[in-house]
Model the fold of this input.
Amino acid sequence: MNIVDRRLNPKGKSHTNRQRFIRLARDTLKEAVARSIKERSLGDVDTKEVVNIPKKRIQEPRFHHSTRGGYREHVLPGNKEFVQGDTLPKPEEGGAGGGGREGSPDGEGQDNFQFALSRDEYLDILFDELELPDLAKTHLKEATTLRTTRAGYSHSGSPSNLNLVRTMRHSLARRISLHRPKAAEIAALEAEIADAKDETTRAELKARHEKLIRRARYIAYIDPVDLRFNRFEPTPKPNAQAVMFCLMDVSGSMSESMKDLAKRFFLLLHLFLSRKYDHVEIVFVRHTSQAKEVDEETFFRSTETGGTVVSSALEEMRRIVAERYPLEDWNIYAAQASDGDNYSGDSETCTRLLRDELLPISQYFAYVEVVDEREAGMFRSEANASALWRDYKVVADGNPNFAMRRVFSKADIFPVFHQLFAKNRKAA
Done:
């Protein structure tokens, strides 16, 4: 069998050639996409991207005669400077020269190739080779079953699916519209015939009676056109689902630049889950000295601040799981972002909640500690890490489903995100 695809390319573009080009230049596009994350503003992370690709990175390989390099066993006639066995230097590339702003008297070349990625192509490349790790219960993307659900009514079907109420309603409407004689009307006419004394009146009543009987016979009480059957359709429904808890510290110790780093991480996480999975719920929790569940707009836009009690976010997560997400049906995930500052004595409560309450019920828990870029040099070493980081490190050593990373600048966001959610993720 030969199948000929005659569908038109969208908007006059060659979709097949475009996808082939993306495959060929994928490494270059990945580098450009990863680089764009740190250069974009917070609200433009998921927009399209214009990528500059060096010309030599998109040329297809081909065999040709080399004009330079290799070994030569002859000397050209007219040569006065070299003898056999000397090494000839390679000529410089056309247009090459020293630095500065002066022009070059010779050489030519081509500008880099510009290629515009659509939003969907941009996100596909951005989240390539990423997934929610440790899906022990079921695989989310294929975790659907077909369940029969009501889907209206049909004119045909199994007798067991006959809807009597709908059928009788249509039968009554048809009988009224066609003026089918009622049984009471016929019975009353028969009583008049029995009581009639005059033969002429009786003959008229009998003729009228026969007409009603004939009309009642022609207009059936229930006609096949009246039948209505309950219709059912197979509907895909998730067999298992996942929920991601986003826990963000917005206390006074978090500077605006640190909050921006945390928001960039969670925005990437939100885009990743929305793009890759159909059945993932996201719960947003902000905390200062108290934690509360908020909507997406409040999570990313609110300017609330205050003291710091990190355990309040963990307590809020535990409460929400107990109330809304049965463990037998849900995969539990969490991502926490904080600067590591915490109320004195609260770190012990955090480690206890993590080790004894949350990690046993979670498929995966990621902790991201944001550090002010001005203090990056001081806090890159483990010796100068925050107290919360050191306490969490003890918990991470015995729990493979707990991962920790630190972010110092915008350039670290995507590499850290890629490390935490790579398909072949390695423990910290």
